[in-house]
C-alpha cells in the first residue's frame, strides 16, 4: 500500500469538493473507506493505533467544505396518504393509457407504503439486474407481498432487505396495485424472464427517473407542485 499522509487526505478532500462537487458527508465516507482498507492490510499508517492522532487540519477542511455547501431553498413537502388517494382517483379518470395508469399507481403506492426512494424504483441510465428491482424480487402471499430490495442508499454493502407490503382493503392498497399492474403488463409483454425489470415503461424499457416528472404534474391539481415523487420519502 502506498504511504498515506494527512496532506494527501486534505488534497483528496479538496479535489472531491472542488472538481467532483461531492458533499462533505460523502467525502468523509470515502475517507472512512480508505481507513478500512489500510487497517485491513495491516500497513502502519496514520490510521493505526500507534500513529493515530486527531487529524485537525483535515477536520478544518471538512468544516470549510460544509460551510460552502449551498442548502436547497426549495421546501420539500411530505407525500401524504390523501395526495396518493387523490392521484389514484385522477388516474382512473383516463389521464393516461391503461398501462401507464397501472404503472404509476403501482410505483407510487409501493414507494409510499415501502418508504422507498425514487432511485430504488427507477434507473438513471442502464438497467442492472444485480441492483435494480426485478420480477423475481416480488413475492405474493395470502395477505401481503414481499419486495426484496437488493441495494439502497443506506445499504452500501448490498446486504439486501425484505420489505413487507400488506393488504389494507382500501383504494390505496400496494398489493392490489402491484397485482393490477402485473396483469396489465403480462397482457402487453407476454414474455418476461424473472431477471427483467419489475417496473417498465410502455416501450418495455426499465422505468427511468426522468419518467417520474409526470407523476406530479401541476395540471393534475392534486396539491402544491412542490410535492415531488423524487423526494426521499424515507428521509422525511
Characterise the protein shown here.
This protein is mainly alpha-helical and 236 residues long. It is built from seven helices and three strands; from the N terminus they run ααααααβββα. The chain has a three-stranded antiparallel β-sheet with strand order 1-2-3, covered by helices on one side. One of its GO terms (biological process) is DNA recombination.
Number of strands: 3
From the alpha carbons, calculate the radius of gyration and give it in angstroms. Answer: 22 Å
Helix/strand class: mainly alpha
What is the average per-residue confidence, as pLDDT, rounded to a whole number?
83
Which of globular, elongated, flat, extended, rod-shaped describes the shape? elongated
Q: What is the number of helical segments per DSSP (H or I, 4+ residues)?
A: 7
Layout of secondary structure:
Blueprint: H1 6-18, H2 24-41, H3 56-68, H4 81-91, H5 98-114, H6 118-121, E1 138-140, E2 144-149, E3 161-166, H7 174-188
Helix pairs in contact: 1-2, 1-3, 4-5, 5-7
Keywords: Membrane, Transmembrane, Transmembrane helix
GO biological process, one term: DNA recombination
Transmembrane segments: 95-115
Entry summary:
The chain is 39% helix and 6% strand. By secondary structure, the protein is mainly alpha-helical.
Keywords:
membrane; Phage_Integrase-like_Recomb; 236 residues; mainly alpha; transmembrane; disordered C terminus
